[in-house]
Amino acid sequence: MRKDASIPEPCPVARSVDLVGDRWSLLIVRDAFDGVRRFTDFQRNLGVARNILADRLRRLVEVGILVAQPTAKGGAYQEYVLTERGLRLFPVVVALRQWGEDQLFAPDEAHSELIERRSGKPLRRMAPEGEDGNLLAPGDTEIRKLPR
Q: With CB atoms counted within 10 Å of each terminal CB, which end of the chain scores lower, N or C?
């Protein structure tokens, strides 16, 4: 797996945001989780300009989040498929979704819902847990920064 050591930043959050922190990149990844694979389908779903979409798709391929491959039907078209690295963004997308549900919608306001296929029920709320399984708050953690 390609690491991005070329980004001279010792903070994992900063490196992550550099790769997928803009609106369009995250929405492309979200749509890829929903099964979208073709350029025209991304464009139709997102309403993004072709040049911006092409740029974000190129970048996501460059950093190993998506891979471009010929479509199953063959021909000149290609599709974009999440790599293992891209699939590992699923918890990030779920966490953003759940934060948005909690913070950006009125209690009775309708919104899309992420459900587990097997049970048909919404996912449990994600939350960081300690070694003992107890939920952690920000005050329960600390960042060990590199010496200067």
A: C
